[in-house]
Amino acid sequence: MSGARVSGNATTRFGNVALLSVTSRLPSRVTTSTAVQERLAPALARLRLPATLLERVAGVEARRNWGEGEDANTATVAAGLEALAEAGVEPDDVGLLINTSVTRKHLEPSVAVGLHHGLGLPTSAVNFDVANACLGFINGMSIAAGMIESGQIRYAVVVAGEDADDIQDVTVERLLRDDVGREDFMAEFASLTLGSGSAAAVLGRADEHPEGHRVLGGVTRAATQHHLLCVGSTEGMFTDAQGLLEGGLELVVDAWKDATADWSWGAMDRYVTHQVSRVHTHAIVEAVGLDRSRVPTTYGHLGNVGPASVPITLVEEQATLDAGDRVLLMGVGSGINTAMMEIAW
Fold first, then answer.
1. What is the DSSP code string of 186-245?
2. 305, 286 Cβ separation under 8 angstroms
3. Which of 20, 118, 240, 263 is 20 to 30 A distant from 225 in Cα terms?
4. Which of 129, 74, 118 is nearest to 96 (CA)?
5. What pLDDT, on the 0 to 100 scale, is given for residue 303?
6. Mind telling me the catalytic residues?
7. Residue pair 329/343 in contact by the 8 Å Cβ criterion
8. Contacts of 260 (CB under 8 A, 6+ apart)
9. In angstroms, rounded to a whole number, what is the distance separating the alpha carbons of residues 126 and 98?
């Protein structure tokens, strides 16, 4: 990282965009870390790892998994319909749908097309997927805001629906093999912290919705020399946890310092960060000097819900936010990329 100030596309401001609603749908099934570790007990004992590894290392005590008759797409449609109803926006008025989930059951067509159909959106509504690991939702909001600001559309729906169930089952079965060593186990540890869930947000023009929450803009930065530190597929997710933490922190600190020329984020009322683990949250808080009491966490009871974790955490916090509160959405995604977006509540 050069440390030099970066501008251009990396810094964005919006003048007439508002977040009108944000909703979530959580699976009914709660899977405790105790239950996961009981399944892994033979491997943990053989590798001399703590029986409470998930709680001790990641601070994850539970996560949600889809129950009988539930699935991510159905839940995402439900969250989207609720978000539209809360915003007072008719589906026919939506001009854009962006799906930002990591989860996808097939390579094509896009996940967005099924969600577009489920939401009953008009044929005129542009729809597509944006895939950028755990940053997808913030990126999707930024793209939607730009299209609203330009006058191309009036309303946008941004969604994410995550299903970590299969990858966790496959990972547990693989980690129970006798040929798996301690290093192999820790390379797949992050998969065990994942959770499932869905979220949706509706954005529109601020001048048409003075009751909305102004989307002011933000910054993005990339450190793509680290693109191999966390690589995931349907078969598993393999991570250099220490390298990813160090690279992500360096990028966040550099982005934070660069942003001070255009933004004043030192005293926000709430910092809604992507939920990875206790270690990652503490490291970011310390690295940029955040007020820990203003950094809510959901990883303890929901795990890492990928790009849906930021909006899900915002949903849990919105009842405690007052008009005028300053909220900063923050995330780091595999690759490595980072994004920060300010909302005036």
1. HHTGGGGGB--EEEEEEEEETTT-TTSEEEEEEEEEE-GGGTTSEEEETTEEEE-HHHHH
2. no
3. 263
4. 129
5. 97
6. 108, 134
7. yes
8. none
9. 8
Q: Coil, helix or strand for 183?
A: helix
Distance CA 64, CA 55 (A): 15
- In whole angstroms, give the CA distance from residue 101 to residue 124: 22
Summarised one tens digit per residue, pLDDT across range 132-144 is 999 999 999 999 9
Q: pTM for this one? A: 0.95
**Total residue length of the chain:** 345
Whole-number Å distance between alpha carbons of 158 and 96: 8
Q: CA-CA distances (angstroms) from residue 29 to 68, 105, 165, 225? A: 9, 21, 11, 38
Bridge partner residues of 160 (DSSP): 199
Are 101 and 161 in contact, with CB atoms under 8 Å apart? yes
- Distance CA(105)–CA(311), nearest Å, equals 22
Burial of 38-53, coded b for 16+ CB within 10 Å and e otherwise, reads: ebbeebbeebebeeeb
- In whole angstroms, what is the distance from residue 253 CA to residue 150 CA? 31
More confident site: 299 or 261: 299
CA distances, 336 to each of 227, 241, 256, 269 (Å): 6, 13, 15, 27
